[in-house]
Design brief:
This protein is of the alpha/beta class and about 325 residues long. It has twelve helices and ten strands. Strands 1-2-10-7-8-9 form a six-stranded mixed sheet, sandwiched between helices. Strands 5-4-3-6 form a four-stranded parallel sheet, with helices on both faces. Strand 7, helix 7 and strand 8 form a beta-alpha-beta unit. It starts with a helix and ends with a helix. The relative contact order is 0.16.
Amino acid sequence: MSDYLQAHARAIDEAAARIAPHIRRTPTLTTDLDPDLLLKPECFQVTGSFKPRGAFNAILSLAARDPAPRGLITASSGNHAQAVALAARTAGLPAVVLIPEGANPAKVAATRALGAEVITAGISFENRDQRLAEEVAARGLALVHPYDDWDVIHGQGTAARELLEDRPDLTAIATPIGGGGLLSGTALAAKAQNEEIQVIGVEPANADDAYRSLQMKERQRLPRAPDTIADGVRTLSIGQRNFEVLVANRTIEAIVTVTEAEIEEALSTAWLRLKLALEPTGVLPLAAYLAGKLPKPQKPAGGRGPVALILTGGNFDPAGVARLLASHG
């Protein structure tokens, strides 16, 4: 194992110990879809998504410093917002969250209910980074970036760490990718244990900045917020640290894209067949699997080995999901 992977693996181990009292160890499930398919449903996680893993690691690390920050600030479409609000409340720190106008109202309400100050007026996916920088400068609060932060990345890597504790024989892991925090943490955790494990990111075809970044070997930025029902991955570009992990250090095998129709089909499968209440972003790896877009890894002795999908969250818009399920009979 390279020194790079060793250092990050130690940080993921430390993150796992730090956040253990505050998160749930989500299960590794089998499915009748395929005996080689394993699911890690982070919809069972506190706040309904994987995001508390990174938020708690970052905020508990910040709170332990001398001096501790006056408060915390972040930007998010909703799941990271809830995670930061909960972790900040646990640490006894105030939190400010910028959420784009038009975001999932259930996520906005949940963030406020957890005690955070939420700013939506005038916030868009296109300007939120600029507005975030302005608020950081004006308020003097500590930034907890949703993905371009080593503590967040290491916290997110604990999901793959749990998977590999349950099934060390894994041959592939697929996760959604927006800004790249979860995929980066997953790649670091997986490659530190076994560099033969294939790590694959999945994003909507309408939001293919990560796919193009991997192909071009430089960060690509979308000109505007992508039009996709997967609201958790409506980022314009992956982060700098995420690019370092995923592309510069070549820790992933592929990024694949799925259509909106394939996302809808996966959502229907999750709800109606698997009985998992997932949001559209959470089913991205399942969409790729059902569409036959994931690589088919081979065991050393031949044949397919276990493939794991990290299904990232279940914070859905009830009306929107009801319409989609109705359209699928």
